[in-house]
Amino acid sequence: MKLYNSYIFLPNPFRKENIHTAQEEGVIHIGLDKSVESYIKQKFPDIKEINESKNIFKTKYIDKMVMNNKNIDVMYIINKVSNTTYLDVFVDGNNKIDLIIALENINSLVLAEDIRNEYICIISYDSVSEYYCNKMFPKLDKFERNLRKLLFNIYIVNFGKDYYQSTISQELQNKAKSNMHLKGKSEKVQVEQIQQFFYSLDFGDIDKLLFTTSIATYNEKKFNDFLKCNKNLSKLSDDELRKAFNEFVPKSDWNRFFKDKIHIDDIENVINNIRKYRNCVAHAKLFNKNEYDTCNKLVKKLNIAIIKAIEITEEKDFTEKNSNTIGELMSHIISSMNKLGESLAEAITPNIFESINFKDLIFPSAIDFSKSIGLSDVLKPFEENDETVEEKRLPQNKK
Question: Of the residues 111, 144, 170, which one is the last residue of a structural domain?
Answer without folding.
Answer: 111
